[in-house]
């Protein structure tokens, strides 16, 4: 989709009227290709850092990054974090917390290797073979 000029035109057009424009995981590449991340700090999946920066974004390994109306989230699971933060922005903290409770979003991963900073080298290398 990052190579589809018509779709990128639509993204740029729709962004002019959104309250928030958001992306999850490699969706940030679409925002970058549309020129929306130029000079902004953003996040995405760690496997596309170079591509994201090639679009003019400044990569950060944070799970969720807000730059004005643009919010990017890292890998797929961080999209849930972003959704809860977005719920707070669109309503209030109590509503966001109620949504978190209602969805039973209480992450307890079986391993502590969910970020490049935490994963041992051999796990990082194995992950690279999966993509």
Automatic annotation (TrEMBL):
Keyword Lyase: yes
Family matches, as Gene3D superfamilies: 3.40.50.880
Residue ranges occupied by any DJ-1/PfpI domain in the UniProt entry: 2-86
Family matches, as Pfam families: DJ-1_PfpI
One of the record's GO molecular function terms: lyase activity
Keyword entries, A-Z: Lyase
Transmembrane segments: none
EC code(s) of this entry: 4.2.1.-
PANTHER family per record: ARAC-FAMILY TRANSCRIPTIONAL REGULATOR, DJ-1_PFPI DOMAIN-CONTAINING PROTEIN
Protein name (record): DJ-1/PfpI family protein
